[in-house]
């Protein structure tokens, strides 16, 4: 993406949001479906893939590593993979754009193959920590041939011809880190074990099982999981159905809660319990969110969510809930601003290393628009007054979620609110502006 040309956008208060919509496919599942399909001999298919820029970068990387990926006119993706350990030497650098997930999962996958690949990305991705992933991958036999300061991108990784299985306890709660080790462990003989102190989203484990790998996940301690993967499986081709992304649904959901008179239905939103922290928190705040038709779709729980405008009150959000809503704090902070009373969100250290320093970017977004907000250590405290002045321009820092959260705030604030750049929304939520306008939002 050309980050030198900015595309500002303004949100204004208007009538209620109404209607029925389906947000695009889940980003986490989309990346994983492409990577596992690429590691499987035979044809796998993916329906409902998120065709956002982040995921398309992963698709291009899998092609560069030797897999065949085609999109049918019907939107179905067909993948012919190369098998575990079967990646080909890529001809050029693998470009992951803005995507930490694509990059870190691919680092894990490449680590278990006897190829050398250079990983590059945009300015945001190039500033994000990669050492956390490289440390366990080096223990598994991969070698970092070259990297920018602190192990950042651009970096060149030489995968292991004979990867070593490890027992790994991630120092931070990160599904990307867990997944990178499991993907590298696919090519290692014997058992690769990941012991999480705080359970994170479990899409990699579910999907590995779906592709025929032997993987067992059991509770560990109060909030954790112990995951054991048998290496060197013959993965079997599989068909993946990608449910609607709860992290994208969060934006129209909160908009409907905040804009008076709103009443809308969001179809087939994934309700995997490792992703529903925001819905639990909003309900504690008094939100009227009803799961209309709960069902199972392609191995994941989904539901249609009916959301009606609600008077919200401030709450305490415990630190242990963070992994299940890690991407939702900017939009929760918007909801908290329009609630009555203080909301304290605890344990947000990981927000500092997202697409932007999201803790600072969220606080700055609120402050500029007249909301009283403090950062205390790793906590964010928002003083809700039931209304927001608005009127300021928000700096989005190449961060799609700051951009969408700010626009939702503008739909409920007294004065119009402008964001400096809407371009990065396309990394995770192509069609966001059109979908919101279709529900009645004033975005121009
Ligand atoms: C993701 C994990 C989270 C999340 C990201 C997607 C994944 O990152 O923020 O948007 O698909 O595994 P961390 O694992 O770094 O917390």
How would you characterize this protein structure?
It is a single chain. The protein has helices at residues 27-38, 53-64, 100-111, 123-126, 131-139, 175-185, 203-210, 246-258, 277-284, 329-337, 358-368, 400-412, 432-438; strands spanning 9-12, 18-21, 42-47, 68-71, 77-81, 94-95, 116-120, 143-148, 152-158, 167-168, 191-196, 215-220, 224-230, 239-241, 263-270, 288-291, 295-297, 300-308, 316-317, 340-345, 372-376, 379-385, 393-394, 417-419, 442-443. With 444 residues, it is of the alpha+beta class. The strands form six sheets. Strands 2, 15, 16, 17 and 18 form a five-stranded mixed β-sheet that branches. It has a four-stranded mixed β-sheet with strand order 23-24-1-25. The protein has a four-stranded mixed β-sheet with strand order 4-5-3-14, covered by helices on one side. The radius of gyration is 21 Å and the shape is globular. The mean pLDDT is 97. Shikimate-3-phosphate (S3P) binds next to helix 6. The site of shikimate-3-phosphate (S3P) has 10 residues, from helix 6.
């Amino acid at each position: 993406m050309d980050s030198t040309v900015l595309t500002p956008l303004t949100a204004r208060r208007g009538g209620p949001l109404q209607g029925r919509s389906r947000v695009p496919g889940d980003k986490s599942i989309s990346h994983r479906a492409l990577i596992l399909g690429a590691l499987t001999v035979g044809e796998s298919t993916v329906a409902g893939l998120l065709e956002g820029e982040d995921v398309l970068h992963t698709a291009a990387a899998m092609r560069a590593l030797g897999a065949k990926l085609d999109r049918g006119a019907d939107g179905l993706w067909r993948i012919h993979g190369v098998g575990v350990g079967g990646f080909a030497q890529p001809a050029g650098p693998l470009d992951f754009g803005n995507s930490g997930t694509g990059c870190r999962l691919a680092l894990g996958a490449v680590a278990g193959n006897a190829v050398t690949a250079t990983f590059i990305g945009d300015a945001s991705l190039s500033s994000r920590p990669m050492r956390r992933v490289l440390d366990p991958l080096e223990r598994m036999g991969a070698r970092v041939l070259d990297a920018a300061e602190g192990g950042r991108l651009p970096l060149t990784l030489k995968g292991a011809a004979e990867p070593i299985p490890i027992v790994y306890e991630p120092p931070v709660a990160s599904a990307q880190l867990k997944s990178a080790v499991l993907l590298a462990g696919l090519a290692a003989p014997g058992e690769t074990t990941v012991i999480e102190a705080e359970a994170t989203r479990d899409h990699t484990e579910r999907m590995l099982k779906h592709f025929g790998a032997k993987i067992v996940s059991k509770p560990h301690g109060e909030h954790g999981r112990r995951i054991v993967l048998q290496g060197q499986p013959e993965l079997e081709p599989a068909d993946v159905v990608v449910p609607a992304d709860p992290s994208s649904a969060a934006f129209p959901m909160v908009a409907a809660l905040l804009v008076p008179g709103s009443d809308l239905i969001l179809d087939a939103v994934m309700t995997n319990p490792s992703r529903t922290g925001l819905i639990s928190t909003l309900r504690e705040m008094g939100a009227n969110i009803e799961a209309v038709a709960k069902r199972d779709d392609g191995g994941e729980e989904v539901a249609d969510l009916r959301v009606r405008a609600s008077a919200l009150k401030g709450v305490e959000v415990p630190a242990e809930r963070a992994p299940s809503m890690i991407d939702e704090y900017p939009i929760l902070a918007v909801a908290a601003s329009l609630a009555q009373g203080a909301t304290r969100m605890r344990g947000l250290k990981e927000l500092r290393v997202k697409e932007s320093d999201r803790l600072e970017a969220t606080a700055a977004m609120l402050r500029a628009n007249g909301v009283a907000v403090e950062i205390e250590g790793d906590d964010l405290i928002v003083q809700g007054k039931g209304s927001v002045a608005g009127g300021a321009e928000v700096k989005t820092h190449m961060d799609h979620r700051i951009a969408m959260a700010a626009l939702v705030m503008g739909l409920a604030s007294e004065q119009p609110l402008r964001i400096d750049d809407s371009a990065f929304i396309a990394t995770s939520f192509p069609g966001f502006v059109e979908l919101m306008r279709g529900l009645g939002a004033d975005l121009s």
